[in-house]
Amino acid sequence: xxxxxxxxxxxxxxxxxxxxxxxxxxxxxxxxxxIPEESRLTGVVPVLNQSQSAGVANFSDVINPEKSTSREDTxxxxxxxxxxLHFDVDSKEYNDALAILKTHHGHMNQDKL
Length: 113
Description:
It is built from 4 helices and 5 strands. By secondary structure, it is an alpha+beta fold.
């Protein structure tokens, strides 16, 4: 069984480097593409240590859910994410894929985990 992953990056180089390193895993349908300027990236958090729950930070640690969801309320590091890498990975290698994304400073939607 496979899992679909979408990860956001500050630069095309970060996204392409992660994509290249992911080739050692069982990944398919991998693609890097620019994020449209007007996209809203609320709910995107950095990929952190795998020992944490689901491999990501607690969303409330990154953004206060009580705030409005306007782009101005998005954390500064998220406002500068300009590339999306999406791919499918064998569920047995999911944690390995998260580790690679962390190494390349990837961010993910928490609700996709």
